[in-house]
Design a protein that fits this description.
Blueprint: E1 10-19, E2 22-32, E3 37-41, H1 48-55, E4 63-68, E5 71-72, H2 77-84, E6 87-90, H3 101-111, H4 116-130, H5 145-157, E7 163-167, H6 175-192, E8 195-200, H7 203-209, E9 212-217, E10 220-225, H8 227-232, H9 237-242, E11 247-257, E12 260-265, E13 268-273, E14 281-286, E15 292-295, E16 307-319, E17 322-328, E18 332-338, H10 339-345, E19 352-357, E20 362-366
Parallel strand pairs: 3-8, 3-9, 6-7, 7-8
Antiparallel strand pairs: 1-2, 1-4, 4-5, 9-10, 11-12, 11-14, 12-13, 14-20, 15-19, 16-17, 16-19, 17-18
Helix pairs in contact: 3-4, 3-5, 4-5, 5-6
Amino acid sequence: MGTRGSALLIRISGLFRRAGTRNILDAIDLEIRPGEIFTLIGPSGSGKTSLLRIIDLLDNPTAGKIFFDGTDTAATNQIRLSIRRRMAMVFQKPSVLNTTVAGNVAFGLKFRGVEKIEIGTRVREALDIVGLSHLSDRRAVTLSGGEMQRVAIARALVTRPELLILDEPTANLDPVNTEMIENLIRRIHQHFHTTIILSTHDMIQGQRLADRIAVIMGGRIVQVGSIQDIFYHPQNKDIARFVGIDTIVKGIVESNDGGHAKISVGTAVFEVITSSKPGTPVSLFIRPEEVTLAVKDGDLPKTSVRNQLAGTIIKMVPFGPFIRVTIDFGFPLTSLVTRRSSDELSLGVGMAVIAGVKATAIHVIPDSE
């Protein structure tokens, strides 16, 4: 299932997709490298599925170019068919044929005219990979949603694609099946070195699976980068809010000594790492998991953490195994703490606490950018 050694497997340039006067996809430029898991994240309706369908050559762009392994996909039908046979797509809602599990998986190979003995070998291999060998003779329509999704993945794998496209493959699944599908995606990637393009609106899933991430909003790619780039160095406020940064406050750079700056936010002063010059208006992005809490008891504790602020808890909201704690410092600051930590500190609304944030944990963007 490996790729043929091109520096890029997919290159997209100036791609538009229009419906009437509305741009569904707007000036998309994107590169996908062989062997990576590339994840598209974005809110519902942002254009993720439209982009994946165009990459899979199911739909055509209104304008722009797509190259697969160096070949322009705007070519003859024969060339497009040969390219399509090197990729496979699994949709958000799996559809199965009213036949056996093995029959479903074999369908694409029969369509391609593969020999019967070879079909049997490949089907057994694919079902073993997705953990459904014991259900090979079961009618596929009787399976659970998670099992149907694994059948769909097996049906894609059996063709040995160089590119596997997954459109929100766990959107309709419970946590147990979601974890199973995610583990399956990792196994496929590690075992076959298949290039995978995955779309999701699940931020945590994006972090768990991706080598690189693209954020798509309103039909535009607004940022591409590593997990660290996207989740800890978002390029603007909209991206920051989407990737889970609650605390976004405005301030003014008061001083900067070789990149070590002091920024005033109301009556508070933050020490940060930034190249912004004194007098620059900036926005500070602080991820909630970077904020530590301690019960206020007299003076501020002695610690290496540069930023310590005394405030009052104004809201506590359960968040899975964590609790999102909002503290008022004249501006709201959110901390993500475990339930155990919350219980040990006896945290509650109205309590006075000390919040600590490392200088290196604060992402600064000049407001002019």
